[in-house]
Amino acid sequence: MGSTVQQNLAEEPGGGIFSMRRATIRDSLITGNLANDDGGGVYARRGGVQVYDSIVSDNVVDGSGGAVGSTGNILLVRSHSDGNDADGPGGAIWTLDGDVTVVGSTLNGNRADDRGGAIGGESDVVVLNSTVSRNLANAQVGGGIWSRGNLYVGNSTVSNNFSEGKAGGVGGGGIVRLEHATITDNFAAVASNVGAGERLESFASILGPTNAFLGDDEPPPRAACRVTEAVSYGYNLATHPLCGLDGPSDVVGLEDPGLGPLQEDGGFGETNPPEAGSPVLERIPPGACRLSPFYDIFDASDQHLEGYVNDRVALLTRDQRGVERPQGSACEIGAVELGP
User: Fold this and answer.
1) Which helix (H) or strand (E) holds 93?
2) Strands 111-112 and 136-137, how do they pair?
3) Which of 95, 187, 207, 229 has its Cβ near the most Cβ atoms within 10 Å?
4) Would you kindly state where each structural domain of the chain is located, as residue ranges?
Protein backbone atom coordinates (compact mmCIF):
# COMPACT_ATOMS: atom_id res chain seq x y z
CA MET A 1 0.00 0.00 0.00
CA GLY A 2 1.31 3.45 -0.95
CA SER A 3 4.43 1.97 -2.54
CA THR A 4 6.53 2.46 -5.66
CA VAL A 5 7.91 -0.64 -7.41
CA GLN A 6 10.06 0.47 -10.31
CA GLN A 7 12.69 -0.82 -12.75
CA ASN A 8 13.12 -4.33 -11.41
CA LEU A 9 14.03 -7.48 -13.35
CA ALA A 10 12.95 -11.07 -12.70
CA GLU A 11 14.15 -14.14 -14.58
CA GLU A 12 10.95 -15.85 -13.43
CA PRO A 13 7.33 -14.55 -13.06
CA GLY A 14 6.66 -11.18 -11.46
CA GLY A 15 8.98 -8.45 -12.65
CA GLY A 16 8.03 -6.14 -9.79
CA ILE A 17 6.08 -8.34 -7.36
CA PHE A 18 5.73 -12.11 -7.04
CA SER A 19 3.38 -13.92 -4.65
CA MET A 20 2.52 -17.56 -4.12
CA ARG A 21 -0.86 -16.42 -2.72
CA ARG A 22 -3.10 -13.41 -3.34
CA ALA A 23 -1.35 -10.12 -4.11
CA THR A 24 -3.27 -6.95 -3.14
CA ILE A 25 -2.02 -3.62 -4.49
CA ARG A 26 -3.43 -0.32 -3.14
CA ASP A 27 -2.51 3.30 -3.89
CA SER A 28 0.75 2.26 -5.51
CA LEU A 29 2.87 2.80 -8.62
CA ILE A 30 4.28 -0.25 -10.40
CA THR A 31 6.18 0.78 -13.51
CA GLY A 32 9.15 -0.02 -15.70
CA ASN A 33 9.56 -3.61 -14.50
CA LEU A 34 10.57 -6.61 -16.64
CA ALA A 35 9.92 -10.34 -16.24
CA ASN A 36 11.23 -13.16 -18.40
CA ASP A 37 8.14 -15.22 -17.62
CA ASP A 38 4.59 -14.05 -16.74
CA GLY A 39 3.43 -10.83 -15.04
CA GLY A 40 5.68 -7.94 -16.01
CA GLY A 41 4.53 -5.84 -13.07
CA VAL A 42 2.77 -8.27 -10.71
CA TYR A 43 2.34 -12.03 -10.65
CA ALA A 44 0.45 -14.23 -8.19
CA ARG A 45 -0.53 -17.86 -8.31
CA ARG A 46 -3.92 -19.28 -7.27
CA GLY A 47 -4.77 -16.47 -4.88
CA GLY A 48 -5.02 -14.01 -7.76
CA VAL A 49 -4.31 -10.28 -7.90
CA GLN A 50 -6.38 -7.31 -6.70
CA VAL A 51 -5.37 -3.78 -7.70
CA TYR A 52 -7.08 -0.68 -6.25
CA ASP A 53 -6.44 3.01 -7.01
CA SER A 54 -3.04 2.31 -8.54
CA ILE A 55 -0.96 2.67 -11.71
CA VAL A 56 0.49 -0.49 -13.24
CA SER A 57 2.00 0.83 -16.45
CA ASP A 58 4.98 0.55 -18.80
CA ASN A 59 5.96 -2.95 -17.71
CA VAL A 60 7.32 -5.61 -20.09
CA VAL A 61 7.10 -9.41 -20.02
CA ASP A 62 8.59 -12.16 -22.15
CA GLY A 63 5.44 -14.16 -21.55
CA SER A 64 1.82 -13.32 -20.63
CA GLY A 65 0.34 -10.37 -18.71
CA GLY A 66 2.41 -7.27 -19.40
CA ALA A 67 1.13 -5.59 -16.24
CA VAL A 68 -0.57 -8.35 -14.22
CA GLY A 69 -0.45 -12.12 -14.58
CA SER A 70 -1.97 -14.89 -12.48
CA THR A 71 -3.46 -18.35 -12.49
CA GLY A 72 -6.32 -16.99 -10.34
CA ASN A 73 -8.82 -14.12 -10.47
CA ILE A 74 -7.67 -10.61 -11.37
CA LEU A 75 -9.53 -7.50 -10.18
CA LEU A 76 -8.64 -3.96 -11.29
CA VAL A 77 -10.53 -1.08 -9.64
CA ARG A 78 -10.10 2.68 -10.29
CA SER A 79 -6.67 2.08 -11.74
CA HIS A 80 -4.58 2.75 -14.85
CA SER A 81 -2.84 -0.04 -16.74
CA ASP A 82 -1.32 1.66 -19.77
CA GLY A 83 1.65 1.11 -22.05
CA ASN A 84 2.46 -2.46 -21.02
CA ASP A 85 3.98 -4.99 -23.41
CA ALA A 86 3.72 -8.80 -23.57
CA ASP A 87 5.39 -11.24 -25.94
CA GLY A 88 2.52 -13.62 -25.20
CA PRO A 89 -1.21 -13.02 -24.51
CA GLY A 90 -2.64 -10.17 -22.43
CA GLY A 91 -0.85 -6.91 -23.11
CA ALA A 92 -1.92 -5.61 -19.70
CA ILE A 93 -3.83 -8.45 -17.97
CA TRP A 94 -3.75 -12.22 -18.37
CA THR A 95 -5.05 -15.04 -16.22
CA LEU A 96 -4.76 -18.70 -17.02
CA ASP A 97 -7.63 -20.06 -14.96
CA GLY A 98 -9.57 -17.30 -13.12
CA ASP A 99 -11.96 -14.50 -14.02
CA VAL A 100 -10.98 -10.94 -14.88
CA THR A 101 -13.03 -8.00 -13.56
CA VAL A 102 -12.21 -4.37 -14.39
CA VAL A 103 -14.17 -1.54 -12.73
CA GLY A 104 -13.73 2.21 -13.30
CA SER A 105 -10.30 1.86 -14.91
CA THR A 106 -8.36 2.59 -18.11
CA LEU A 107 -6.31 0.22 -20.23
CA ASN A 108 -4.64 2.25 -22.95
CA GLY A 109 -1.80 1.61 -25.38
CA ASN A 110 -0.94 -1.95 -24.34
CA ARG A 111 0.45 -4.54 -26.76
CA ALA A 112 0.38 -8.34 -26.94
CA ASP A 113 1.95 -10.67 -29.48
CA ASP A 114 -0.93 -13.05 -28.85
CA ARG A 115 -4.57 -12.79 -27.69
CA GLY A 116 -5.94 -9.76 -25.88
CA GLY A 117 -4.16 -6.50 -26.61
CA ALA A 118 -5.25 -5.17 -23.20
CA ILE A 119 -7.16 -7.98 -21.44
CA GLY A 120 -7.02 -11.71 -22.01
CA GLY A 121 -8.40 -14.60 -20.02
CA GLU A 122 -9.12 -18.28 -20.26
CA SER A 123 -12.37 -17.88 -18.27
CA ASP A 124 -14.89 -15.00 -17.96
CA VAL A 125 -14.18 -11.26 -18.28
CA VAL A 126 -16.32 -8.39 -16.92
CA VAL A 127 -15.57 -4.73 -17.76
CA LEU A 128 -17.59 -1.94 -16.10
CA ASN A 129 -17.35 1.85 -16.37
CA SER A 130 -13.95 1.61 -18.04
CA THR A 131 -12.09 2.63 -21.18
CA VAL A 132 -10.11 0.15 -23.29
CA SER A 133 -8.35 2.04 -26.08
CA ARG A 134 -5.40 2.03 -28.49
CA ASN A 135 -4.36 -1.52 -27.66
CA LEU A 136 -2.82 -4.00 -30.10
CA ALA A 137 -3.00 -7.79 -30.49
CA ASN A 138 -0.47 -8.91 -33.08
CA ALA A 139 -1.58 -11.71 -35.39
CA GLN A 140 -4.25 -12.98 -32.99
CA VAL A 141 -7.73 -12.08 -31.62
CA GLY A 142 -9.13 -9.38 -29.37
CA GLY A 143 -7.35 -6.11 -30.03
CA GLY A 144 -8.93 -4.69 -26.89
CA ILE A 145 -10.40 -7.63 -24.94
CA TRP A 146 -10.40 -11.38 -25.43
CA SER A 147 -12.09 -14.04 -23.32
CA ARG A 148 -12.25 -17.76 -23.93
CA GLY A 149 -15.36 -17.83 -21.73
CA ASN A 150 -18.15 -15.26 -21.48
CA LEU A 151 -17.54 -11.52 -21.78
CA TYR A 152 -19.61 -8.62 -20.40
CA VAL A 153 -18.92 -4.96 -21.25
CA GLY A 154 -21.17 -2.41 -19.53
CA ASN A 155 -21.09 1.40 -19.38
CA SER A 156 -17.70 1.27 -21.09
CA THR A 157 -15.83 2.50 -24.16
CA VAL A 158 -13.75 0.16 -26.35
CA SER A 159 -12.22 2.32 -29.06
CA ASN A 160 -9.26 2.52 -31.45
CA ASN A 161 -7.94 -0.98 -30.78
CA PHE A 162 -6.28 -3.17 -33.42
CA SER A 163 -5.97 -6.88 -34.09
CA GLU A 164 -4.20 -8.46 -37.03
CA GLY A 165 -6.56 -11.42 -36.71
CA LYS A 166 -10.14 -11.29 -35.47
CA ALA A 167 -12.20 -9.01 -33.19
CA GLY A 168 -10.42 -5.68 -33.16
CA GLY A 169 -12.49 -4.41 -30.23
CA VAL A 170 -13.83 -7.34 -28.19
CA GLY A 171 -13.88 -11.08 -28.74
CA GLY A 172 -15.23 -13.96 -26.72
CA GLY A 173 -15.44 -17.69 -27.23
CA GLY A 174 -18.68 -17.85 -25.26
CA ILE A 175 -21.47 -15.28 -24.91
CA VAL A 176 -20.54 -11.63 -25.47
CA ARG A 177 -22.91 -9.30 -23.62
CA LEU A 178 -22.95 -5.54 -24.21
CA GLU A 179 -24.91 -3.01 -22.16
CA HIS A 180 -24.64 0.75 -22.70
CA ALA A 181 -21.32 0.02 -24.38
CA THR A 182 -19.60 2.00 -27.12
CA ILE A 183 -17.55 -0.34 -29.33
CA THR A 184 -16.26 1.87 -32.13
CA ASP A 185 -13.33 2.71 -34.39
CA ASN A 186 -11.60 -0.62 -33.89
CA PHE A 187 -9.92 -2.64 -36.64
CA ALA A 188 -9.30 -6.30 -37.47
CA ALA A 189 -9.07 -8.37 -40.62
CA VAL A 190 -12.23 -10.16 -39.46
CA ALA A 191 -14.92 -8.69 -37.16
CA SER A 192 -13.47 -5.21 -36.72
CA ASN A 193 -15.40 -4.42 -33.55
CA VAL A 194 -17.06 -7.55 -32.12
CA GLY A 195 -16.52 -11.30 -32.41
CA ALA A 196 -18.72 -13.76 -30.50
CA GLY A 197 -18.22 -17.51 -30.65
CA GLU A 198 -21.46 -18.64 -29.03
CA ARG A 199 -23.77 -15.63 -29.08
CA LEU A 200 -23.90 -11.82 -29.01
CA GLU A 201 -26.45 -10.25 -26.65
CA SER A 202 -26.73 -6.48 -26.70
CA PHE A 203 -28.74 -3.69 -25.10
CA ALA A 204 -28.41 0.07 -25.66
CA SER A 205 -25.00 -0.24 -27.31
CA ILE A 206 -23.10 1.18 -30.28
CA LEU A 207 -21.31 -1.29 -32.57
CA GLY A 208 -19.22 0.40 -35.26
CA PRO A 209 -18.00 1.88 -37.44
CA THR A 210 -14.61 0.36 -38.18
CA ASN A 211 -11.38 2.34 -38.18
CA ALA A 212 -9.46 3.04 -41.39
CA PHE A 213 -6.05 2.24 -39.90
CA LEU A 214 -4.73 1.19 -43.30
CA GLY A 215 -5.59 4.47 -45.00
CA ASP A 216 -7.51 5.24 -48.18
CA ASP A 217 -5.46 2.92 -50.41
CA GLU A 218 -6.58 -0.18 -48.52
CA PRO A 219 -9.89 0.45 -46.74
CA PRO A 220 -10.82 -1.70 -43.75
CA PRO A 221 -13.43 -4.44 -43.94
CA ARG A 222 -16.94 -3.08 -43.54
CA ALA A 223 -18.18 -5.92 -41.37
CA ALA A 224 -18.10 -4.69 -37.78
CA CYS A 225 -19.07 -8.10 -36.35
CA ARG A 226 -18.77 -11.84 -36.76
CA VAL A 227 -21.25 -13.66 -34.55
CA THR A 228 -22.78 -17.13 -34.60
CA GLU A 229 -26.08 -15.88 -33.19
CA ALA A 230 -27.36 -12.52 -31.97
CA VAL A 231 -30.03 -11.46 -29.48
CA SER A 232 -31.12 -7.84 -29.29
CA TYR A 233 -32.59 -6.51 -26.07
CA GLY A 234 -33.32 -3.26 -27.87
CA TYR A 235 -32.01 0.23 -28.55
CA ASN A 236 -28.75 -0.68 -30.28
CA LEU A 237 -27.02 1.07 -33.16
CA ALA A 238 -25.05 -1.29 -35.41
CA THR A 239 -23.33 0.06 -38.50
CA HIS A 240 -23.41 -3.34 -40.23
CA PRO A 241 -26.21 -5.94 -40.51
CA LEU A 242 -23.77 -8.80 -39.83
CA CYS A 243 -23.96 -7.83 -36.15
CA GLY A 244 -27.38 -9.51 -36.28
CA LEU A 245 -29.14 -6.85 -34.21
CA ASP A 246 -32.45 -6.22 -35.93
CA GLY A 247 -34.96 -5.51 -33.17
CA PRO A 248 -37.72 -2.95 -33.80
CA SER A 249 -35.93 -0.31 -31.70
CA ASP A 250 -32.47 -0.96 -33.19
CA VAL A 251 -30.79 1.28 -35.77
CA VAL A 252 -28.96 -0.86 -38.35
CA GLY A 253 -26.81 0.02 -41.35
CA LEU A 254 -26.30 3.68 -40.54
CA GLU A 255 -22.59 4.15 -41.19
CA ASP A 256 -22.04 7.26 -39.07
CA PRO A 257 -23.26 7.16 -35.45
CA GLY A 258 -22.23 10.79 -34.99
CA LEU A 259 -19.61 10.29 -32.29
CA GLY A 260 -16.74 12.59 -31.47
CA PRO A 261 -13.13 11.36 -31.40
CA LEU A 262 -11.74 9.57 -28.37
CA GLN A 263 -11.15 12.35 -25.85
CA GLU A 264 -11.10 13.45 -22.23
CA ASP A 265 -14.67 14.47 -21.50
CA GLY A 266 -15.00 14.05 -17.75
CA GLY A 267 -14.80 10.86 -15.73
CA PHE A 268 -11.87 8.51 -15.26
CA GLY A 269 -11.08 7.67 -18.90
CA GLU A 270 -11.50 8.94 -22.44
CA THR A 271 -14.81 8.43 -24.26
CA ASN A 272 -16.39 8.96 -27.68
CA PRO A 273 -19.18 11.44 -26.81
CA PRO A 274 -22.12 11.81 -29.20
CA GLU A 275 -22.17 15.03 -31.19
CA ALA A 276 -25.16 17.26 -31.76
CA GLY A 277 -27.57 15.60 -34.16
CA SER A 278 -26.24 12.09 -33.53
CA PRO A 279 -28.80 9.31 -34.11
CA VAL A 280 -27.93 7.83 -30.69
CA LEU A 281 -29.37 10.84 -28.86
CA GLU A 282 -32.59 10.42 -26.85
CA ARG A 283 -33.46 7.02 -28.32
CA ILE A 284 -34.25 5.09 -25.11
CA PRO A 285 -37.36 5.80 -23.00
CA PRO A 286 -36.39 6.65 -19.40
CA GLY A 287 -38.04 3.54 -18.00
CA ALA A 288 -36.08 1.24 -20.31
CA CYS A 289 -32.78 2.84 -19.24
CA ARG A 290 -33.19 1.28 -15.81
CA LEU A 291 -34.03 -2.26 -16.91
CA SER A 292 -30.99 -4.51 -17.35
CA PRO A 293 -31.40 -7.84 -19.18
CA PHE A 294 -28.23 -9.13 -17.50
CA TYR A 295 -29.16 -9.65 -13.86
CA ASP A 296 -26.80 -12.58 -13.31
CA ILE A 297 -23.73 -10.49 -14.22
CA PHE A 298 -24.10 -8.59 -10.95
CA ASP A 299 -23.85 -11.60 -8.68
CA ALA A 300 -21.11 -10.36 -6.34
CA SER A 301 -20.21 -13.82 -5.08
CA ASP A 302 -19.58 -15.01 -8.63
CA GLN A 303 -17.77 -12.00 -10.09
CA HIS A 304 -16.13 -10.62 -6.92
CA LEU A 305 -17.93 -7.29 -7.34
CA GLU A 306 -19.03 -6.93 -3.73
CA GLY A 307 -18.60 -3.34 -2.61
CA TYR A 308 -18.32 -2.04 -6.17
CA VAL A 309 -21.58 -2.93 -7.91
CA ASN A 310 -24.05 -3.61 -5.14
CA ASP A 311 -26.91 -1.77 -6.82
CA ARG A 312 -27.45 -2.59 -10.48
CA VAL A 313 -30.14 0.06 -10.86
CA ALA A 314 -27.86 2.77 -9.48
CA LEU A 315 -25.19 1.79 -12.00
CA LEU A 316 -27.51 2.11 -14.98
CA THR A 317 -28.91 5.48 -13.93
CA ARG A 318 -25.50 7.06 -14.66
CA ASP A 319 -23.24 6.87 -17.68
CA GLN A 320 -19.58 5.83 -17.78
CA ARG A 321 -18.49 9.26 -16.51
CA GLY A 322 -21.05 9.38 -13.69
CA VAL A 323 -23.51 11.68 -15.49
CA GLU A 324 -27.09 10.89 -14.53
CA ARG A 325 -29.40 9.38 -17.14
CA PRO A 326 -31.38 10.88 -18.77
CA GLN A 327 -30.22 14.44 -19.32
CA GLY A 328 -33.13 15.18 -21.64
CA SER A 329 -36.46 13.52 -22.25
CA ALA A 330 -34.85 10.13 -23.03
CA CYS A 331 -31.53 8.31 -22.74
CA GLU A 332 -28.68 8.01 -25.21
CA ILE A 333 -27.45 4.77 -26.76
CA GLY A 334 -23.92 3.90 -25.70
CA ALA A 335 -21.63 4.67 -22.78
CA VAL A 336 -22.04 8.47 -22.72
CA GLU A 337 -25.08 10.57 -21.85
CA LEU A 338 -24.84 13.99 -23.48
CA GLY A 339 -24.90 16.51 -20.65
CA PRO A 340 -26.28 20.05 -20.76
Assistant:
1) strand 93-95
2) parallel
3) 207
4) 1-98, 130-340
